[in-house]
Prior knowledge:
The chain is built from nine helices and no strands. The model has no long low-confidence stretch (mean pLDDT 87). The N and C termini lie far apart (47 Å). The chain is 73% helix and 0% strand. Helix 4 packs across helix 6 and helix 5 runs antiparallel to helix 9. By secondary structure, it is mainly alpha-helical.
Amino acid sequence: MHKAALHQFTHRGYEHVSIASIAKEANIAVGTVYRFYENKISLLRAMLREIEDEFVDRMRSDWDAGGRYPQRLDRICEGLFEVARDRSELLRLFSMTTDVVYEDGSLPGELIQSQIKDMYLEAMNDGVFREGDVEMMAAMAHGLVEGAMMRWMRMGAPTATNVDKELASVMKSGFLT
């Protein structure tokens, strides 16, 4: 069902997709979709949360692997783009859906930003990251990642360099003391 919804959303646009068209493409009854999701927006929210959870899980795993902070940033950036490469079609939903609000009132990307904030706070407390407003620094880091992902999705990786290494370099120069 998610595969059919993803295809419908990314090829027709959210506004032009119905539960019936998703069910038809998935070769299931419309009632089956409604058994799992109250409506189209709840299906979209579940799909967005899925990709967000993948990013957060990967970030936590790469960060918790330990080592020096510059290497942690390298691993995180590499991991984020690995998830993006593996799930690029699902990631496109993030770029299409700027007005989605989760049922708990949070926005797509806030879970990722919260994870960045936790990592930043840890490194700042260890004296490795610059002192600053943790919320603002996390928002800036999230913006860097989001911007790099959007560029990568629209234009492809530059041939002379890898986007993940370029992003890690920018983050290191901006955040490390």
